[in-house]
Design goal:
With 719 residues, the protein is an alpha+beta fold. Among the domains are: 243 residues, DNA ligase/mRNA capping enzyme (D-amino Acid Aminotransferase, Chain A, domain 1), CATH 3.30.470.30; 62 residues, no CATH class; 87 residues, Orthogonal Bundle (DNA polymerase, domain 1); 68 residues, Rossmann fold (3-Layer(aba) Sandwich), CATH 3.40.50.10190. It is built from 25 helices and 24 strands. Strands 12, 13, 14, 15, 16, 17 and 18 form a 7-stranded antiparallel sheet that branches. A hairpin with a 7-residue loop joins strand 15 and strand 16. The radius of gyration is 27 Å and the shape is globular. It starts with 5 loop residues before the first helix and ends with a helix.
Length: 719
């Protein structure tokens, strides 16, 4: 991050990991409300800014990327109200950019990945990003057979009957179209129709609607299609899913085909080449935004040529060949009424500013994270002042709050002219506000610098850390135990009855047995009941067999997010192999340590954290008890088993002349290979180009198969 965004810059690794965990939970909550219930609690700008903070932290700390990260997730699980539809091709979302510099970086990344010079030879399409509900329309032999929402990106909701009532969506396509056609786009409600609907609701004495997007989504999910028909929904086509034949070889050409087939397409879409032209179009659309009869929240850029899109490929959640350039944030003034301290799973003490409620662009903001003691004092990671006048933040201060940026909401600055004369500097606590244990700032052994995070030393003695660890353990992308939410964890943790206590993860799986021999029955406690207790025990038993990467992630090892857990599971195969290797790596030297560091995506900080976890006897005791209750499954083999490189470990070294290094790695991983950054005895293939050095020497020493670039391309062509 640049100096103008200091908030992520001053984060330590530990603080970043804690913040990413918090963001994963919060954004998943908002995803469920937005995509599943059409009832968001925050604005789109606030939501985008939460995701931007997540992306900013992941950019600085790539080794901390979690599998439940918003950058690896699309939408929310489909509603059970409608029958499920599995998308023939996943409906992925887009990465977001927020500045002209971000757009320049996106364009540069496309050229860099493809190995081209930035000479404006690559065309991009640019079109408004409609604020509506994503929809996939499937036609077979020219006839509409199904319409499905995005859902979680893999499975959506079948809303075909309701979609048939939308006049702008054709029920039949012209003759000559491909046998299978999936047109994707956005269903929305025009501003004029929304205002007319609200006037009608007022006249009938009924409650009015909040905004066009939620109204459109709610209208589409009506059980009675007649209600949907009365709401005047509209549609813009801009993408596709499965196609039995491609009628064009460009993005722009495909959209024009949609127009010829009778679908509405956005008239503001253009095909452009230079960054300057792309940004000029973005600003033109921004100026037109108030006059448009539909809501937009940015502009989408896509590489135009489909063959280049194919080469660029996808990340886990989004394509490399597209991005959404969002419109800017808004600011307001308010007052810091108090500063509270929250204690996270890793013991990090995070200060939170409690603000006098202020409306910023239609959204009420009541609090903002202040990160750490240094941020409150106005000190950066290297001791530099991070505010224009180097001032601190105090209770009672009038502050500038920004709705988007690296911290959402973010206290951007202090209005010193309004500071009270008796305002005292905030004194960061030296003891944990939850358990009273000493709170300390550790010193980095390598750099000698004092970490910016203040951490409670209470460990599992600290209720906050213990309960947060349990909440992480049962979270959606860990053990995913339905019925064990935040409130239930707090209840079980605080119970004084041994038959009801859950203090560590193994206690979850012994709860049923303890209940069977106890007089204090859970079903007799307020908030529970026979049915809910039965479902809870069923949900617990259902998770006794667990995927290896979920098990590793659930352990709550610092710096080990879901992505890292998957890398570890794939590399070691079984939990026994993983645990043995981590214990053998404890000296932080030797073959086991080197192999851990050689796993692509595992850096020394993450590796050290994993090894330190397995050096702690208390951790081993808890894990051993847990293994008496659950069975981690062996990691799944790559789906591309027919590939000659599936399951093999590949190292690229030296210069590649026919593709970029990123393209080579992405291609190998698509074929099921594991790409490593260093050569070990477990390496299967080394692809060596001109300039290969020590890695090539090591490959020869270990008698590993060596290929040049041409041999590699011929080898994978067999896939």
């Amino acid at each position: 991050m640049s100096a103008e965004n200091p908030n992520v810059d001053i984060m330590t690794m530990e603080e970043a990991a804690a913040e990413l965990a918090r963001l994963a939970r919060e954004i998943a909550h908002h995803d469920a409300l937005y995509h599943g219930k059409d009832a968001p609690e925050i604005s789109d700008a606030d939501y985008d800014a939460l995701k931007r903070l997540n992306d900013a932290i992941e950019t600085r700390f790539p080794e901390l990327v979690r599998e439940d990260s918003p950058s690896r997730r699309v939408g929310a699980a489909p509603s059970v109200t409608f029958s499920p539809v599995v998308h023939a091709r996943p409906m992925l979302s887009l990465d977001n950019t927020f500045s002209d510099e971000d757009v320049s970086d996106f364009v540069a990344s496309v050229y860099r990945f493809l190995g081209h010079l930035p000479d404006d030879s690559i065309a991009f399409t640019a079109e408004p990003k409609i604020d509506g509900l994503s929809m996939s329309l499937r036609y077979e032999n020219g006839r509409l057979v199904s319409a499905a929402t995005r859902g979680d990106g893999t499975t959506g909701e079948n809303v075909t009957a309701n979609v048939r009532t939308i006049a702008e969506i054709p029920d039949r396509l012209p003759t000559g179209v491909p046998e299978v056609v999936e047109v994707r786009g956005e269903i929305y409600m025009a501003k004029s129709d929304f205002l007319a609907l609200n006037r009608q609701m007022e006249a009938e004495g009924k409650q009015t609607y909040v905004n066009p997007r939620n109204t459109a989504a709610g209208s589409l999910r009506q059980l009675d299609a007649k209600v949907t028909a009365s709401r005047k929904l509209r549609f813009f086509a801009y993408a596709w899913g499965e196609m039995s034949a491609m009628p064009s070889d460009t993005q722009f050409g495909m959209v024009q085909k949609f127009r010829e087939w009778g679908f509405p397409v956005n008239p503001l879409m253009k095909r452009l080449h230079s960054v300057a032209d792309i940004l000029a179009h973005y600003h033109e659309i921004g100026l037109e935004r108030p006059e448009l009869d539909y809501d937009i929240d940015g502009v989408v850029y896509k590489v135009d040529r489909l063959d280049l899109q194919q080469r660029l490929g996808f990340r886990s959640r989004s394509p490399r060949w597209a991005t959404a350039h969002k419109f800017p944030a808004e600011q307001a003034f308010t007052t810091v009424e108090a500063i509270d301290i929250q204690v996270g799973r890793t013991g990090a003490l995070t200060p939170v500013a409690r603000l006098t409620p202020v409306t910023v662009g239609g959204v009420v903001v009541t609090n903002a994270t202040l990160h750490n003691a240094d941020y409150i004092e106005g000190i950066g990671n290297s001791g530099e002042r991070i505010r224009p006048e180097g001032h601190d933040i105090r209770i009672g201060d009038t502050v500038v709050v920004q709705r988007a940026g690296d911290v959402i909401p973010q206290v951007l600055d202090v209005v010193l002219e309004k500071r009270a004369e008796d305002a005292a500097a905030y004194e960061f606590p030296k003891k944990c506000p939850v358990c009273g244990s000493h709170a300390v700032r550790e010193r980095n052994e390598k750099t000698g610098k004092l970490d910016s995070v203040t951490r409670c030393t209470g460990g599992f003695v600290c209720r906050a850390q213990a309960t947060e660890h349990l909440k992480h353990f049962v979270s959606r992308n860990a053990f995913d135990i339905e019925g064990l939410g935040s409130k239930q964890i707090d209840f079980f943790f605080e119970s004084e009855d041994p038959a009801l206590q859950i203090r560590t993860a193994p206690d979850i799986f012994t709860l049923k047995a303890r209940q069977e021999s106890s007089l204090a029955k859970l079903e007799n406690i307020d908030g529970f009941g026979k049915v809910s207790v039965r479902k809870l025990f069923e949900a617990i038993d259902k998770r006794r067999d667990i995927a290896l990467h979920r098990f590793i992630y659930a352990l709550g090892i610092r710096h080990v997010g879901e992505t890292t857990a998957k890398l570890l599971a794939r590399s070691y195969g079984t939990y026994d192999a993983f645990a043995v290797a981590m214990k053998e790596a404890a000296p932080l030297a030797g073959e086991a340590w080197n192999e851990l560091n050689a796993v692509e995506g595992i850096g020394e900080i993450v590796a050290r954290s994993i090894v330190e976890f397995y050096k702690e006897p208390r951790n081993i005791e808890v894990v051993d008890r847990l293994l008496g209750e659950v069975r981690p499954e062996a990691a799944e083999q790559p789906m591309t088993t027919a590939s000659p490189v599936a399951g093999k470990t590949v190292v690229f070294t030296g210069s590649l002349e026919k593709m970029t290094r990123d393209e080579a790695k992405a291609g190998a991983e698509r074929l099921g290979a594991k790409v490593s950054g260093s050569v070990s005895k477990k390496t299967d293939i080394v692809v060596a180009g001109p300039g290969a050095g020590s890695k090539l020497d090591k490959a020869r020493e270990f008698d590993i198969r060596i290929m040049d670039e041409d041999e590699w391309l011929a080898f994978i062509a067999e896939a």
